[in-house]
TrEMBL record:
This is GNAT family N-acetyltransferase. It comes from Streptosporangium nondiastaticum. GO terms for molecular function: acyltransferase activity, transferring groups other than amino-acyl groups. PROSITE patterns: GNAT. Residues 4-179 form the N-acetyltransferase domain. Pfam families: Acetyltransf_1. CDD domains: NAT_SF.
Length: 179
C-alpha cells in the first residue's frame, strides 16, 4: 500500500473521469451487474446527477496511473428526496439533521477485486469522512453483500432501517454514523 496515492476530486473533475470511474464500477460489481439498476449506463446516469450536488467529493486511490478504487458522496439537500423510499418512521433526529443540512451520504465505495483485503476501502472511507463538516453520515448497503456489510458495522455504522431509493433498485439497509 506504500505506493498508493490518494487524490480528491470535485464534481467537475469526477465528471471528467466518468468513463474510468465506470470501468472500475463494472469490474467491482462484475458478478452483480443486472442490466438494470446495476449496469454501466445506470451508474453513469446516477453519477451525472451526483457530481452536480452541493458538497460532492470523491477520494480516489491510485497505483501509479491505475485507479485502484474510490469513494464518493455528497451533502443531502435539506429539502431533497434522499429519504424517499425509507421504510418505516424516520427518527426525528435524522429528520432534524437532514433539514439543517448536516447529513452526508456516501453513495459509492469500491475497490478493484485484485486490490481488496488490503485496507484500501477503509482508508478511502476514513479519508472522505474526515474532511466533512456534517454531523451524520449515511450509507446504503445491500444486505446480501456480506463483506461490505460486515466492514461497515466494524467501522461503527449502525442500521437505521431499510430503504429502496429507486424503483428499480434493491432494498438496501440504511446505515448511519456520527462523523
Amino acid at each position: 500500500m506504500a505506493d498508493l496515492k490518494l487524490r480528491r476530486l470535485s464534481g467537475k473533475e469526477a465528471d471528467g473521469e466518468r468513463e474510468v470511474l465506470a470501468d472500475v464500477y463494472e469490474e467491482a460489481y462484475a458478478e452483480k451487474l443486472d442490466g438494470a439498476f446495476r449496469s454501466r449506463p445506470a451508474f453513469l446516469d446516477r453519477l451525472s446527477a451526483y457530481v452536480q450536488r452541493p458538497g460532492f467529493e470523491l477520494v480516489a486511490s491510485e497505483d501509479g496511473s491505475a485507479l485502484v478504487g474510490y469513494v464518493f458522496g455528497f451533502a443531502i439537500a435539506p429539502a431533497g428526496s434522499w429519504w424517499g423510499g425509507f421504510r418505516g418512521e424516520l427518527p426525528e433526529e435524522v429528520r432534524r439533521l437532514t433539514g439543517q443540512g448536516k447529513v452526508f451520504a456516501i453513495s459509492e465505495l469500491m475497490v478493484r477485486p485484485a486490490w481488496r483485503r488490503r485496507g484500501i476501502a477503509r482508508l478511502l472511507h476514513d479519508r472522505l469522512i474526515a474532511s466533512r463538516a456534517e454531523e451524520l453520515g449515511t450509507i446504503l448497503v445491500d444486505p446480501k453483500n456480506i463483506p461490505a456489510r460486515s466492514a461497515y458495522y466494524a467501522w461503527g455504522w449502525e442500521k437505521l432501517g431499510d430503504i429502496q431509493p429507486f424503483d428499480n433498485s434493491p432494498v438496501f439497509e440504511s446505515l448511519v454514523k456520527r462523523i
